[in-house]
Amino acid sequence: MAGFINSTDKIQNRYWDNQRESYCVKVLPGQYYCTREKELIATTLGSCVSACIWDKKHKIGGMNHFMLPITEKKEGSVFWGDMPTDEARYGNYAMEYLINEMIKSGAEKEYFQIKLFGGGHIMEGFSDVGERNIDFILNYTATEGIELISQDLGGAYPRRVLFNPVTGKVWVKRVKDILANKLMANEKAYNREITTKPISGEIDLF
User: Among residues 70, 68, 84, 58, which one has the least CA distance to residue 6?
Assistant: First the structure.
């Protein structure tokens, strides 16, 4: 079983990884994915944060990707769209959506382990979104009592993250040069967009 925030986009976000000989699902900002299938989950992070959650008993894993730490939904606000993607760009919603989807897929929270990635300081001239994301996710993990296995947070560089949801193993690679510059430019645009109006479509930062 698998859960994807934009289920209609699953096919276009799924590709074959020749190096690891496995299908891989790419998670974009404001999305999450969980599965117990033998496939990989991937994303690329700048100041955004991803949580990789693994149920060590049932071998179910999931990943999210959020840009901002926390918000409150205000009734009647025109800021909010109807799709979960509008909310899952924020850490508090991204975590709840992923955890709930994993539980619906058969996971049990008492067996959860979590690995955290991202929160880089890559946007000069902006408030330190990465640091606020890090503060949020560490506080959330501690408050919820989820076992924190490892973290690769902060720094002045983007990251590529590849997660095996069956074994819980994660590979991380630091992004440099041209791709990093493109990621930073797109993330600035994405940050401006989500703080002013709802998102009608996803921005691909990869």
Answer: 84
DSSP state of 27: P
| CA-based R_g, the chain, Å | 16
| pLDDT single digits (tens) 37-86 | 999 999 999 999 999 999 999 999 999 999 888 765 544 333 333 334 46
Q: Tens digits of per-residue pLDDT, 84-116?
A: 446 778 999 999 999 999 999 999 999 999 999
| Residue 195, amino acid | T
What confidence score (pLDDT) does residue 181 get? 59
Task: Calculate the alpha carbon distances from 117 to 37, 54, 79, 84 in Å.
Answer: 22, 14, 28, 22
Pick from 53-57, 89-93, 123-127, 180-184: least confident: 180-184
- Burial class (CB within 10 angstroms; exposed 0-12, middle 13-18, buried 19+) of 138: middle
Residue count of the chain: 206
Which amino acid, residue 146? I
Distance CA 67, CA 81 (A): 17
* Cα 85 to Cα 67: distance, rounded to the nearest angstrom: 12
Number of H helices, E strands in the chain: 4, 11
